[in-house]
Amino acid sequence: MRINRYLASAGLCSRRQADQMIRQGRVLINGKAAKLGSEVSLGDQVRVDGREIRLSPSEESLVLAFNKPRGITSTSDPTRRDNIISYINYPKRIFTVGRLDRDSRGLILLTDDGHLAHRIMHASFGHEKEYRVKVDREVTEIFLEAMRCGVNILGQTTRPCKAWKSGPKEFHLVLNQGLNRQIRRMCQALDYQVTDLVRVRIMHITLGSQPEGSIRPLTHKEKEILVEKLGLD
Description:
Shape: globular
Helix content: 10-25%
Strand content: 25-35%
CATH topology of the largest domain: Alpha-Beta Plaits
Number of domains: 3
CATH class of the largest domain: Alpha Beta
């Protein structure tokens, strides 16, 4: 998580005010002066004017499940007319937990809790995300096995994953990492083109029959399991 977002999520100030404090040298990460765009990772110590700033997750943190339509961008940038925050128009300040490509559909989580978001997003935790993918030609076992073993994209081999066929030109994929446009790049590397991509699950939270474009709070049980899995209880 970027340092300005971290400070804003802690309720200390706005992101713009955080940037100003960073320029003034008032913000330290692990004892060193933060820079604009610095990232804060799990276990880092953040201080502002000598005072330690922590995010305090609780079961009362807001977590929403949104079924994102195609054409909505996972950004809060108000200069983007298609930004997800304006589309949802929620009465409280929230932000996305990770992202979903503009051309992709399906489940994306939003929250007001920066620490909770970090625990879900950070690759080191390896939380599962499941996708239903349609491609332009027959899904073969050779293709699926290649996907399972890892595909060379962006100068690296993707982690082993689960994949199974669910239709002549459709398959499900379960990833525990989130490289940029990962599924589309993996398919393209194997001479397949994605025609539709829907995220149907994040950890234990599923899209189910939730209508496209709708948003809902997590159920009490979903929230309870999430807090337990993230080690926040």
